[in-house]
Design goal:
- InterPro entries: MFS_dom, MFS_sugar_transport-like, MFS_trans_sf, Myo-inositol_Transporter, Sugar/inositol_transpt, Sugar_transporter_CS.
- The structure is a single chain.
- Among the domains are: 258 residues, Growth Hormone, Chain: A; 30 residues, no CATH class.
- By secondary structure, it is an all-alpha fold.
- It contains 22 helices and no strands.
- Helices cover 72% and strands 0% of the residues.
Length: 472
Amino acid sequence: MAEKVNPATEGVSFNEMNNGAPPPENYEAETAGRRGSIAMNIVQNPLTRSSHAQAVADAEMYAETHGMPEHKALFGRAALVARDPNSFERLQELDEPERNALVYERDHKWHGPTMLWYSISLCAIGAATQGWDQTGSNGANLSFPKEFGIDSGTGRDQWIVGLVNAIIFLTAGLIGAFITDPLNYYLGRRGEIFLTALCLTATPIGSAFTHSWQGLFAARFVLGIGIGAKNATVPIYSAEMAPARIRGALVMFWQLWVVIGIFLGFCANVIVKDTGPIAWRLQLGSAFIPSFILACGIWFCPESPRWLMKHGKHAQAFQSMNRLRAHPIIAARDYYYSYVLYNEELKLARGSGYFSRLWDCFRVPRIRRANYGASTVMLAQQMCGINIISFYSSTIFTQVGYSDTQALYASLGYGAIQVVFTIPTLFLIDTKGRRTLTLITFPLMCIFLLAAGLSLLKTTGSSASQIGPVVL
């Protein structure tokens, strides 16, 4: 079948149209629809299908018909920049301040207005809340079972303590994750984060005032719902605000701030360790600190431009984007390109239903391999037992002969090591690749977890033979 040529892209190389990506081995120009684009792994800039004049006219019409007539000319120029991002310096339509702003953005990857970094910082605090919520119970495990008479360490008592610890992740996955979509739809990203932050503020405080294990269980039950709903929204909010050039790095910043939250939780456990019988209450209650900051700070952030756009609030969406970018031309470029891509998504979605898109996860070889690989890694990560250390490290250290105080300090060291070894990942993930890092770290984690677990089975001989593997 003869190849059709788009007049807007005639004479333009495949690499130029696709941002330098090499052409696929079996490129079929007539392959239409979503499945074709998925199978060929092509993400083509939709604006390249329009001529220079048509791109300007479409953008100006968009601004005119969506309540932004005063920005009509700005959107026309922004469409040209978005159409060919690497050639903006040759555009005669741009004035000098706009060209300078685009050059500065290109040469300074991490440059952004204060509001952008303020909003990203709030998202980082949202990640830290998860780590702190995990480790608050770590220190409390040394004393709350005694308070509630469930400290025998066997049978029913053992199951109760385990359930109180584990319930936050059970409800996070089974309830919190499933209410995220309706909460986001009706409340927006900011509203959903604010509501879950209030939940994560109230439940640690409630945990600190409980007088039975049932009450503590109930408080942590609700805590888990808040964690699940928050964790599903904060990364999306962060990604929808961030410029494309740093969006990938911010994904790793989420994990960094989770482990920073774990470390801060261990710090709080050590700080309040000498407060007597109420120590465990303070250790659990201290987790309200980051969520309280998040709840107070989130309303000063702009709403997600993409969420506003999807709900028909285009003028507000552009105002929001303007607060997150260093210059109006940058804001208009990013916002209009996001709108164009969103329209493409709507066109593709009309051609296939939910179940056909779900079937693509198994039918299309490229997606099937990615699906199997990602699912295997995530299941292995969550089922390998590493999270047990975050919940029970203090208890484990006391079982091998440490005093309660020594165990808390040892746990603090564990948290510090997590932070230290997460930082190099930020730089290695783009140079060595995710697969390489996974293949190196997973076997090592398996070996040391196995050694730590088997060492606890030893009941005779010196305690050093137990402490060594556990510490490693």
